[in-house]
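Backbone-to-sequence.
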């Protein structure tokens, strides 16, 4: 499938990809190739690749190739078989399969779950030449994590219609003043046989994944210590998942990292203030360290 990038106002076409991970599961991805470095966009828990549209369009307009994908258990990507539990190692392997599709210097922009996966993948496989983490740190606030899980598990029987789903999102994200339109919810909802609309993600992830466990947090802490590539952490000033304390600990683990706080944003940084978020990305890409790394690919 090929389509034009009209929204970005540039002449480009996208490549719809279906990529086999190590265990054979199919991952849905979309790539907009240019002659520039590759930017891989990894969304957060419960999101899809469409969450990156604004930032991806700006990156392409500035000469960067972009690739976004639906994580395992999300959107159009495959789900684990009934007897196969979801495990962090699977997302790491998926990221390895995705990056194998492109050559040359690579930048990861990973939001929340995408950022945690990126840290582990970088420590184990050195996949990227530079990284941007979006409102995620190796240790996170338990209260904010609990709120995310509560929202994702709040409607097991789905919704009557898109208005019902929009109400749920508005209650969860009150800082987003523009209400979601039905067409914006298309990638987030799936119609069941009984006509009910349910979220696009596999609900088994909520019980299978030991994300809040101390062993997982220790693993990510150790991964962060091994990061040597240029790295930017973008946090939301109103986030309840990342705090001043978790940011300070992260900057001790990765002392060369840069940090940018978007004051008016919550955990959903790119959706809350996309202009400020995208500006922070471009400022990082213009920094001497990131420019050198993405020109030479010297860190891999």
């Amino acid at each position: 499938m090929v389509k034009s990038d009209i929204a970005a106002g540039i002449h480009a076409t996208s490549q719809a990809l279906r990529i086999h991970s190590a265990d054979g599961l199919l991952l849905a991805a979309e790539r907009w190739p240019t002659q520039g470095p590759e930017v891989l966009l990894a969304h957060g828990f419960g999101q899809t690749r469409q969450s990156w549209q604004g930032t991806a369009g700006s990156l392409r307009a500035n000469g960067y190739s972009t690739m976004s994908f639906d994580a395992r258990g999300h959107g159009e990507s495959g789900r684990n078989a009934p007897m196969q539990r979801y495990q962090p190692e699977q997302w790491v392997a998926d990221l390895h399969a995705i990056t194998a599709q492109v050559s040359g210097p690579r930048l990861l922009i990973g939001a929340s779950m995408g950022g945690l996966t990126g840290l582990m993948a970088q420590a184990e496989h050195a996949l990227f030449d530079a990284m941007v983490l979006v409102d995620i740190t190796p240790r996170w606030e338990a209260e904010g994590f609990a709120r995310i899980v509560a929202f994702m598990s709040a409607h097991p029987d789905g919704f009557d219609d898109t208005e019902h789903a929009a109400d749920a999102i508005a209650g969860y994200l009150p800082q987003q003043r523009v209400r979601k339109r039905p067409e914006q919810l298309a990638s987030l909802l799936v119609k069941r046989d009984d006509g009910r609309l349910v979220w696009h993600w596999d609900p088994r992830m909520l019980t299978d994944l030991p994300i809040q466990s101390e062993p997982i947090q220790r693993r990510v802490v150790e991964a962060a210590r091994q990061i040597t590539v240029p790295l930017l952490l973008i946090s939301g000033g109103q986030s309840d998942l990342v705090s001043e304390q978790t940011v300070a600990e992260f900057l001790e683990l990765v002392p060369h990292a840069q940090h940018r706080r978007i004051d008016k944003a919550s955990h959903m940084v790119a959706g809350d203030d996309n202009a400020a978020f995208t500006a922070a990305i471009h400022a990082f890409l213009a920094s001497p360290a990131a420019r050198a790394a993405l020109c030479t690919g010297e860190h891999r």
